[in-house]
Amino acid sequence: MAQWSGEGWVPPAVGRRRALLDLVARIVLVVLLVVGVLGLPSEAGYRLTAGSVTFELRPSWPGGRLLMPLGPAGELSLRTHATPVDVVMTYRLPAETAALLSAGSLSEDLPLLEGGARAAFTRYLLGRIPWLLLIGAAAGLLVAGTWPRRRLVWGGLAGMAVALILGGGVVLASLATLDRTPTTEYRGLAAKVPAMLPLLRALSTGGDRSDRLARLSDYFDGLAAVASQLTAEPRRPARVEVVRLLLASDIHDNVFGARAAARLAAGDGSPVDAVLLAGDITDRGSAQEAQLFVSVFGPAGAPVLVVGGNHEDEPAMRVFDRAGYIILDDSAYTISGVSTLGASDPVAHSARIESDVAGLAAAGARLAAVWAGMRPRPQVVLVHDLRQAQETTAAAQGEATDLVVAYGNDHVAGVGRRGGVVLVDAGTAGASGYEAIGSASPGMEAEPPAGSRAAYTFQLIDFSRGGTPRLTGVTTLAYAGDGRTVVSYTPFSR
C-alpha cells in the first residue's frame, strides 16, 4: 500500500528505501556530532620562535583555570576566569638548555615567547570555529529531521548559528571575567617553588644581565669564608697541611648548584686538590644537560673525578669524557698520594632511571673484587648509590682497613662511621629544591648535621699531606634557600 509523505503518496518500496536512508543519515549525523564534541576541546600545537606551545580545553566545574603542566615537577595553575572551562597550556622548548647558557638573553626572550603564545592561543580559538560549525550543523539536522530539503537547510543553518552564539558567549564571558592578577597554585614537586622564589629573585635582579650566574660568587663567598676560618676545637688543620677533596652529588641540572660547586672548588685562594662528582649531575642524561653543567662549572683548576648516577645516560657521560673529566669505571686515580677507586651506577649508561637492585649487587661484587686486588688499598671509594659499596665496606671492616666511602643518591648530607670505614654522604647540590629529601642512610651514627637538608650541600674531605694519607676531617657545607649558611666539622684522629 502506498504511504503518504510530505511530498505526496509514495510506493511502499520507495518508503522503505527512504526510511533506511533516514536511519543511515541519522547515524552519520550522530557520529559527526560525537566527532565535533570530541574535537572541540582537543589539543593543538603551534610553533613559536623557540620550541612550541600546545593548548587544550577541559570542561570543568567550577573551572576557570589556566593549567601549565611542569612534567615530573607537577603542575602550576592560575585562576584566570569565571567560566566552566580550564585551559591547559604546555610549553615545549627544546632550546631551553641553550637559553640557560646565555642567561642574559632570557629577559629579552620572555616577551617574545609571551607574544607568540598569545598569537598561538588566538589561532587556537579560531581553530575551534570549524568544530562548532560541525556540532551545530549535525545537531540542527538531527532536530530538523531529514525531509524536506528546505527544512534540512534551515535546520543546519540554525544549528550552526546557535553553536557559534554559545561558543562566542563562553569566550566573551571568559574575557569579561578575566583576572589579570590571578591566584597561583602549585601541585606536586612544584609546590616547593615558592620557597625558592626569594633566592631566585635576589639572584636575577640588578647587576649585569649578561652574567647573572656569576653573581652567585658573592652569595657563596660567605660559606667559603666560614669554612676557611673555622677555629672550633679540635683545631682544623691549615689548608697547606691537607689534601682536600670536594665532594658534590645530585645536582640534577640545577645551575645554581653547579655554580656553587665551582666556587667551592676554587677555594679561598687555594683550589681543592680534586673534585669528586658522585652522580646525578644531569636529570635525564642528555648531552645538552651535561654540556650545561660543564659550561657553568667552568675550568675546575683541579682533576674532576666522575661516577655516573642513575639519572645519567651515555650521551651525558660522553660529554663529561670530552670535557677532560676522569670517569672512574672500576678504576682508580691518585692525587697527591690519595687514591680514589670509583664505579658508576649500573644504569648510568642507559636511559633507565629506576635503580637496578640486582645490577647494584653485581656491580658491588665487581668493585669489591677490584678493591681486594689493589696494593696499596685506595683511601676513597666513590659511588653514587651506597648499596654498590656494601661488599667493599664489609671487606674493609673485616681487614680493619681505613676507608672513606663517598656517595650521594639519597639527598641527605651526613657523616657516619662503621668501624674504620667512614661514610660521607654528599647530600644534594641542587635537587632538594625540586625533589623530596629522603631519610638518613643506614649506618649513620647520628642525625645529619643541622642544615644538611638545605637546598645545596657539599662535603670537603681532608687527608693528611705527606707520608701515608690519613683522614683528618670532613666539613659539611650547607646553604639554605633564605641565605643561611651552616658549617659542621667532623674531625678524625690521625
Report on this structure:
The structure is a single chain. The protein is an alpha/beta fold and 494 residues long. The protein has three domains: 75 residues, no CATH class; 99 residues, no CATH class; 280 residues, 4-Layer Sandwich (Purple Acid Phosphatase, chain A, domain 2), CATH 3.60.21. Helix content is 37%, strand content 22%. It has a seven-stranded mixed beta sheet, with helices on one face. It has a six-stranded mixed beta sheet with strand order 3-4-7-5-6-8, covered by helices on one side. Helix 8 links the parallel strand 9 and strand 10. Helix 8 packs parallel to helix 9. It is elongated and about 110 Å long. The N and C termini lie far apart (115 Å). About 17% of the residues have low confidence.
Q: Topology of this protein?
A:
Elements: E1 3-5, E2 8-10, H1 12-39, E3 44-47, E4 52-59, E5 65-69, E6 75-79, E7 85-92, H2 96-101, H3 106-127, H4 129-144, H5 149-176, E8 183-187, H6 193-204, H7 216-228, E9 242-248, H8 255-266, E10 274-277, H9 287-297, E11 304-306, H10 314-322, E12 326-327, E13 331-335, E14 338-342, H11 357-372, E15 380-382, H12 390-399, E16 403-407, E17 414-418, E18 421-425, E19 456-464, E20 471-479, E21 485-491
Parallel strand pairs: 5-7, 9-10, 10-11, 11-12, 14-15, 15-16, 16-18
Antiparallel strand pairs: 1-2, 3-4, 4-7, 5-6, 6-8, 9-19, 13-14, 17-18, 19-20, 20-21
Helix pairs in contact: 1-4, 4-5, 7-8, 8-9, 9-10, 11-12
